[in-house]
Design goal:
The protein has 5 domains: 60 residues, Helix Hairpins; 240 residues, DNA ligase/mRNA capping enzyme (D-amino Acid Aminotransferase, Chain A, domain 1); 106 residues, OB fold (Dihydrolipoamide Acetyltransferase, E2P), CATH 2.40.50.140; 147 residues, 5' to 3' exonuclease, C-terminal subdomain (DNA polymerase, domain 1), CATH 1.10.150; 69 residues, 3-Layer(aba) Sandwich (Rossmann fold), CATH 3.40.50. The chain starts with a helix and ends with a helix. The protein is an alpha+beta fold and 672 residues long. It binds 2-(butylsulfanyl)adenosine (IVH). 2-(butylsulfanyl)adenosine binds next to strand 3 and strand 8.
């Protein structure tokens, strides 16, 4: 590629990624998957590496892939981060306004009303127009330095442009996870047999504090800014501060309103109580601030909160209905989830018929009886939950809900695992629900993408005993499918075509499709960048896997356990036989047809080796398509460690999360 072509592509990619950022964050309507997005960013990063002088000033690549801080340092706030006094009643808002009027006699008072975003409060420090630090509220006086993580939030500007920018200033805002992203995250968690997160606030807090380089997740956050503080500015009103923030490119929600009377304030509160359902993020109330800064100063602060502001909080929507019965779902990993079936009611804009009960302890905690009048809540939470029981309405002869002791699908006695009160069906071999769950996961779009095989087809195939593992799909005959209810010639061919077509799905999708616990779409993708085929991965140890920056002990153990199970090895052997892609494509060959298994990978050698002189090893790596670097940098893919390696190289590689491999491993990779 020449420079002219590179320039054009860099410009196109930068604009394209900005476009997708907008769709994802502002409109919550992404057109492409996370995976496709990450591919665009990766392609751009590669070009920028090749042509560093062509990199555009605000390239989106500067937001991704930064090494997260090992620990969170404590930072003292220059201005304490206070909380707000809050109320749920109109009467108290009226009292607040009367008190202010009494303390500021005769003066006209303007109220600045804003939404109260339900996320995590953060403070952002800018110096000379550049983002210096991002700190959590912590205990109000000091918080955690989460700069590296917060920098990955696309709507946080890292460089400020505009007029009247003071040399130093601080902004306050709320990091939030938009509802659509929260929903997606929970669906992904459910697909991985993980418990869904309770609400977007928890999801935001967890995401901001993860040490792992889960860029995709942090990219799913947003941040609304609602305050400007600076020694170098003399702002007359809060409104003036908001206007500067808007001009400088901060994300300020346009929902604020200046009000002059109690009626106007109440109209604002009432309006958003209904309209909040249309917002892309969760709010839990509104904040009413005195607009004039000199008036704010006169009113002053208490130890905990300013006297010039108050939060009006909305009651979470809560409604009573009848619990009709409880049934139990069996996930693909065998986890049993109780589900409450309710008399349908309209709640927060949607009809609710079911609510999750999470696990056995939840049923106990609520002391649920069939026919109970229960309270169902859908606050910030997406999945409705039962918050309580109206025991006064309980009929004397009602039966308590007792958790099942055998699997509803196969009758196997359930086992209790982990401390969370979770019950499992241990029959991984032949429980039809587990198999159906696994197959539904296997055929989904992000996995093998076999759209012609739907839920009902899977159920019929399993019930008829035509398939016992996902690999059996590939050995189905025309007659097998034609014999199913409702399948004529065309539909049968369609299914067979879809299955055959999926043999072209790349290795990373296949790995995701296997349904290994904790191995979601993104993790599967990263793993296949390090392990080029399934046999290498099957031999990986926990330590080797953990050397990859985004893999922690839970994921590593889950992978190792998976490959220790002979049934899984059998499944992989059958998939291999069926012609499924279980390695990265070996397109790389030399003119003489020799394979180049290390093509494009960067290596660094440290120490001495048993089977090789250092130089011979280097030659071999180059012959197989690899490059050799002279020091540890982000570009490095593997550090090869022999005897007496350089300790500083190891520390540096660890800090950057670069995998370290030994002689045996490189021998395997060289395929010699
Ligand atoms: S002003 C000194 N404005 O609510 C008062 N806070 O308890 C500073 N919050 O965690 C806060 N939206 O992060 C303010 N528009 C808004 C807000 C807001 C959400 C959060 C804030 C803090 C809590 C106050």
């Amino acid at each position: 590629m020449n420079k002219e072509e590179a320039k054009r592509e860099i410009e196109q990619l930068t604009a394209l990624i900005a476009y997708h950022n907008k769709l994802y964050f502002q409109e919550a309507q992404p057109e492409i998957s996370d995976y496709e997005y990450d591919q665009l960013v990766e392609r751009l990063a590669r070009l920028e590496q090749q042509f560093p002088d062509l990199k555009l000033a605000h390239s989106p690549t500067q937001r991704v892939g930064e090494a997260p801080s090992k620990n969170f340092a404590t930072v003292y706030h220059q201005y304490p981060m206070l909380s707000l006094s809050n109320t749920y009643s109109e009467e108290e808002i009226s009292q607040f306004i009367r008190r202010i009027q009494k303390q500021l006699p005769g003066a006209p008072i303007a109220f600045f009303c804003e939404l109260k975003f339900d996320g995590v409060a953060i403070s952002l420090l800018y110096k000379q127009g550049k983002l210096e630090k991002v700190v959590t509220r912590g205990d109000g006086m000091k918080g955690d330095d989460i700069t590296e993580n917060a920098k990955q939030i696309p709507t946080i500007p890292q460089v400020i442009k505009g007029e009247n920018i003071p040399p130093a200033f601080e902004v306050r805002g709320e990091a939030v996870m938009p509802l659509a992203n929260f929903d997606k995250l929970n669906q992904e968690r459910l697909a991985q047999a993980l418990e869904p997160l309770a609400n977007p606030r928890n999801a935001t807090a967890g995401t901001l504090k993860t040490l792992k380089n889960t860029t995709g997740l942090k990219r799913s956050l947003d941040c609304y800014i609602y305050g400007l503080l600076s020694e170098d500015m003399d702002l007359p009103t809060h409104e003036a501060g908001i206007q500067y923030l808007e001009q400088w490119g901060f994300r300020v929600s346009p929902t604020y309103k200046k009000c002059l009377t109690l009626e106007e304030v109440m109209d604002y509160i009432n309006y958003w109580e209904t309209a909040k359902k249309e917002l892309p993020v969760a709010i839990d109330g509104v904040v009413i601030k005195i607009n004039d800064i000199s008036q704010q100063n006169k009113l002053g602060l208490t130890a905990k909160s300013p006297r010039w502001a108050i939060a009006y909080k909305y009651q979470p929507e809560n409604i009573a209905t009848i619990l009709e019965y409880v049934d139990y779902q069996v996930g693909r990993t065998g986890v049993i989830t109780p589900v409450a079936h309710l008399k349908p009611i309209l709640l927060a804009g949607t009809t609710v018929k079911r609510a999750t009960l999470h696990n056995a302890s939840e049923i106990q905690r609520l002391d649920l009886h069939i026919g109970d009048t229960v309270f169902v809540e859908k606050g910030g939470e997406i999945i409705p939950k039962i918050t309580g029981v109206d025991v006064t309405k309980r009929k004397p002869d009602s039966q308590p809900v007792t958790f099942i002791i055998t699997c509803p699908a196969c009758g196997t006695a359930l086992v209790k695992r982990y401390e969370k009160g979770l019950y499992y069906c241990p029959n991984t071999k032949s429980c039809p629900y587990q198999l159906q769950g696994l197959l539904k996961h296997f055929v989904q779009r992000k996995a093998m993408d076999i759209r012609s095989v739907g839920k009902q087809t899977i159920e019929m195939l399993v019930q008829k005993g035509l398939i016992h593992t996902p690999a059996d799909l590939y050995f189905l005959q025309y007659q097998d499918i034609r014999s199913l209810e409702g399948f004529k010639d065309l539909a049968t061919r369609n299914v067979l075509d879809g299955i055959a077509h999926s043999k072209q799905r790349p290795f990373e999708r296949v790995l995701f499709a296997l349904g290994i616990r904790h191995v979601g779409e993104v993790i599967a993708d990263k793993i296949t960048q390090h392990y080029l085929n399934i046999d290498l991965l099957a031999k990986a140890t926990v330590e080797e896997l953990m050397a990859i920056s985004f893999i922690g002990p839970e994921i590593a153990h889950s992978i190792v356990n998976y490959f220790e199970n002979p049934e899984n090895l059998q499944l992989i052997a059958s998939l291999k036989k069926a012609g499924i892609q279980l390695s990265k494509p070996d397109t790389a060959t030399t003119a003489t047809g020799q394979s180049l298994p290390l093509l494009g990978k960067n290596f660094l050698i440290s120490g001495t080796f048993q089977n090789f002189e250092r130089e011979a090893l280097k030659e071999l790596i180059k012959k197989k398509g690899g490059n050799l670097l002279t020091g540890v940098s982000r570009k490095l893919d593997y550090l090869i460690i022999g005897n007496n390696p350089g300790p500083s190289k190891i520390t540096e590689a660890q800090a950057l999360g670069i995998p370290m491999i030994d002689e045996t491993k490189i021998l395997e990779m060289l395929q010699v």
